[in-house]
Automatic annotation (TrEMBL):
Pfam families assigned: DUF218
Domain (DUF218): residue spans on this chain: 41-172
Transmembrane segments: 5-23
Cited PANTHER family: ENVELOPE BIOGENESIS FACTOR ELYC, INNER MEMBRANE PROTEIN, PROBABLE PERMEASE
Keywords: Membrane, Transmembrane, Transmembrane helix
Taxonomic lineage: Bacteria, Bacillati, Bacillota, Bacilli, Bacillales
Recorded superkingdom: Bacteria
Protein name: Uncharacterized SAM-binding protein YcdF (DUF218 family)
Length: 191
């Protein structure tokens, strides 16, 4: 009896390890295709906001990449997407709007979606702000997050390219482990 328990434990360990590796490789593929200005609309996905409206490093990296992209492609409009978490003193979208405007992006190029509480809602609620026929979008997020964001966007009927923001080294391991679980959940539940 004890041998069977050991064999089952080894088998489960191997399966779990295989899934962990597979999800890690899948996450790496999220950083393609890179955006080239083809899509008229870009969605910046929200992330943690610290007290007094200070964007977390992950969010700041997303915003800096957005500024570079919007400067390079002046015809692109941007949706800043993110509601207010229970531990945040303002919405992620309002912080993103302020950040972009203070750095020279005209407010008339920025649409605000400030009700979402998840990646799926970021995309779903942002879709309501887009012209009805819009199919192509650009998503801006940190590298670890893009695979799931693209999967969810495609489930909503979008064709997606991406702008990749670096993941802060200080939280990279934690976020990559957490993202594997979130990606697996998304594949199982569909959202």
């Amino acid at each position: 009896m004890k041998k069977w328990i050991i064999r089952i434990a080894i088998l489960l360990f191997c399966i779990s390890g295989g899934i962990y590796i597979w999800l890690g490789e899948d996450i790496k593929h999220g950083a393609q295709p890179l955006a080239n200005g083809t899509a008229t609309y870009m969605i910046v996905l929200g992330a943690k906001v610290k007290p007094n409206g200070v964007p977390s490093l992950a969010l700041r990296n997303r915003l800096e990449e957005s500024i570079d992209y919007l400067t390079k492609y002046p015809h692109v409009k941007v949706i800043v997407s993110g509601g207010q978490g229970s531990d945040e003193d303002r919405t992620e979208a309002s912080v993103m709007l302020d950040y972009l405007v203070q750095r020279g992006i005209p407010a008339e190029r920025i649409l605000v979606e400030d009700q979402s509480t998840s990646t799926y809602e970021n995309l779903l609620f942002s879709k309501e702000l887009l012209p009805e026929a819009t199919k192509q979008i650009t998503i801006v997020s940190n590298d670890f997050h893009l695979r799931r964001a693209k999967y969810l966007a495609k489930s909503l009927g979008f064709e997606v390219d991406v702008v990749v923001a670096k993941t802060p080294k200080s939280v990279e391991t934690k976020l990559r482990i957490r993202e594997r679980a979130a990606l697996l959940k998304t594949y199982i539940l569909g959202y």
